[in-house]
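Appendix B: complex inputs.
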Amino acid sequence: DVVLTQSPLSLSVTLGQPASISCRSSQGLVYRDGNTYLNWFQQRPGQSPRRLIYAVSRRDSGVPDRFSGSGSGTDFTLRISRVEAEDVGVYYCMQDTHWPPWTFGQGTKVEIK
Amino acid sequence: EVYLVESGGGLVQSGGSLRLSCTASGFTFRNYWMGWVRQAPGKGLEWVANMNQDGSERHYADSVKGRFAISRDNAGDSVYLQMNGLRAEDTAMYYCARSKGLEYWGQGTLVTVS
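Resulting structure:
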């Protein structure tokens, strides 16, 4: 099974400052079709998860452009260019390249300093 | 707009059964993989099961294999999760999600096993 390791597990950020979350995979995530199926989800307090980024760097509809994804192979990053109050929550990476099972990272809690 | 609405959760004794339902709207249901993801209280996300468009492929997490069964009704735009042999560690919020990439999620239904 693919293990996804996120770091840090907790992040305290000043409003308007950038934030970055790393997701490392135990194996490469390039699928046989050449695509890399690494996704990022946001879960605000008391809400369902919401997908922000799919295929490493593609933003889902309605996701603010301050969110961006990057990476390749086994190392991936979610960046928030300027953190806003509504960005508080837990962020998860997830892979759907090598399945089953579909696997998630442990989650990174983002709070405002 | 895509909507996924789960139901069927509740309190059940250890060893008991529950059947969760998820009704979809806003898209052509029969064209998509559907699945279930759960979240134990205060914990992270855990993929549980999913299935392809016609039900010919079904996959389960090792933690539920042999106890849970996923099914779907394309005429009724619904996906189900039959849960048997429930254990305390199955206590969680259960979310229905669309596609292998989990692009849309429902609001969840809470299952508590005592």
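Chain A has a mean pLDDT of 97.
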